Structures are given as C-alpha cells and as structure tokens.
Amino acid sequence: MFILLTVIWTRCATSRVTTPNYIGRWDYEMDTPQGTINGWIVLNQEGKELSGTINSDMGSTELRDLKIENNLLTANFYAFDMDMDITGEFVEDLFNAKIMVQGYELPFTATKMKE
User: Fold this and answer.
1) Looking at residue 71, which CATH number applies to its domain?
2) What is the pTM of this model?
3) 83 is in which domain, residue-wise?
4) 47 φ/ψ angles, rounded to the nearest 5 degrees
5) φ/ψ of residue 13, rounded to 5
6) pLDDT digits over 55-85, tens only?
7) Residue 53: CB partners within 8 Å, gap ≥ 6?
8) Distances, alpha carbon 21 to alpha carbons 45, 65, 69, 93, in Å
C-alpha cells in the first residue's frame, strides 16, 4: 500500500510542475519584401491563461486571441498600422509559422532558446 501511494504521489507531483514545451522565448528570422527581420516571440502561461508578445528591433506588440491546441498556435497582432494573423506548429524546439498580412504570406521558423 505504501509503495502504491508513493507512486501516485510522485506522478501527481511530476505532472504539476511540467511546463509545456512552447513556453519561453523563440528567436526567428523572417524574409520580407523590405528585407530580413530578426526578432523573438515570448510565450507565457499563468494557470490556464496564455499570453505572448512578438518582438523585433522595431518594437513589441501583444499577441491577441492567442490559442495553442495540439501544438498549433493561432493569434493575431497589430503592427505597422496593420492587422496580422500568425499560425504555426511546434515541433520539438522549432516553431514553423507564417504571418498573413494584406494578402501576403510571410513564412518563418523560430528556434526555442535554452533557459
């Protein structure tokens, strides 16, 4: 009985401290018609609440309507006087994504930074 309770306790404790792989900083490089943009995305989770920002040397903006389900991210943000949508998939330490803006698709890959 003691062994069974120990195993159950260990599994419960382990599951509570597991952080989803997508939480943290993701660095990206994106080719645009105006040139290459280097930046980073930061994803946070407080309880069940997700939040995030997309950042570059030109500024930072909040990811709105941020959802991550089955390793798929969807969100939108406002930058350069335009609404933009971002979608992508997490595969281990890579985030394969695209930003849609005014009918254009800007693909990019971000790499998770080690903490």
Assistant:
1) 2.40.128.20
2) 0.80
3) 21-112
4) 70, -125
5) -65, -40
6) 998 899 999 999 999 999 999 999 989 999 9
7) 41, 42, 60, 61, 62, 63
8) 11, 20, 12, 8
